[in-house]
Write a structure and sequence with these properties.
With about 280 residues, this protein is mostly beta strands. The chain is about 5% helix and about 45% strand. It has one domain: TolB, C-terminal domain (Neuraminidase), CATH 2.120.10. It is built from one helix and 21 strands.
Length: about 280
């Protein structure tokens, strides 16, 4: 066996340390720092209305407008779009499909798409002729039932199993007058987050969203407006604090007179039941 000199041994040790340090991820490399994401002026069609709802995965953000669906990458570039023949609403991801709520189609409440925005199925839901918000959590679909424009406090949420069998109806109420039904629904860790359109002339600090447990009991209310879509961030863009997840939130803005989608970030602190915007 060849015995190395002190100088050779020291050289090999230093080289090994360099290799380890080069290959090891830095502490900061894994930290995701949320920044607002905006589509470029002219990237979206005009006349599409505002963002109705959003969802996201590791590959893209899926933004639903009244009559158009957009697949947008995490830099804000529009990857693909598809027209919608009637009023589309909130989407969610379930069973490797994109499920989009529909407001008017003779009782068809959900349209199912693949991730290339090809329509694969139209789904009729029992006791739900049309829908607004939709979320999928722990094998259940939570669907916002339709309602009218007149201010009202009670809002219908219907719960279906993974085969779209109705298993629960619930009226949710957080003592705030709203227009229409539950607009955007998101699910995280056994909790359901629902955002509404506040009534006309509502104060800026009015409550606009609420959190329910899986039994549909009120847990908390928030002033944060998620009515144009909110959704938990995918794993690679999630907070390291497991009890304080990041949510992506949809907005509609004008840039140089053109419609653009903007996505901001909020963090939910489950221990105190609070939302804080962290990037806008």
């Amino acid at each position: 066996m060849k015995i190395l000199s002190f100088r050779q041994t020291a050289f090999l040790l230093v080289a090994a340390l360099v290799v380890v340090q080069f290959n090891a991820p830095s502490a900061n490399a894994e930290d995701f720092k949320p920044q607002a994401i905006t589509t470029s002026p002219g990237a979206l069609d005009e006349g599409i209305g505002h963002v109705q709802g959003i969802c996201c995965d590791e590959d893209a953000i899926y933004a639903i407008f009244t009559n158009q669906i957009y697949k947008i990458d995490w830099t804000g570039k529009v990857v693909k779009s598809a027209p919608v023949v009637q009023h589309a609403g909130d989407p969610c991801i379930a069973n490797d499909k994109l499920c989009v709520s529909m407001s008017y189609d003779e009782g068809v409440a959900l349209h199912e798409y693949d991730f290339e925005l090809n329509l694969t199925r139209k789904i009729k839901l029992e006791d739900c002729p049309a829908s607004d918000g939709v979320a999928y959590l722990d094998g259940k679909f939570y669907v916002g039932g339709p309602s009218d424009y007149e201010p009202h406090e009670d809002n219908l949420v219907l719960v279906y199993d993974s085969d779209f069998n109705l298993i629960q109806k619930a009226l949710v109420n957080f003592d705030v007058e709203t227009h229409y039904g539950p607009q955007s629904i998101a699910g995280w860790n056994g909790k359901i987050f629902i955002a509404f359109y506040a009534r006309d002339n509502a104060p800026a600090v009015t409550l606009r969203s609420l959190c329910l447990d899986d039994k549909m009991n009120n847990v908390a209310s928030f002033t944060l407006d998620g009515s144009n879509g909110w959704y938990p961030a995918p794993k690679s863009k999630q907070s390291k604090e497991e009890d304080s997840p990041l949510f992506l939130i949809g907005r509609t803005i004008k840039i140089d007179g053109k419609t653009a989608a903007k996505f901001i970030w909020a963090q939910y602190y489950s221990k105190t039941n609070e939302f804080n915007i962290v990037a806008q």
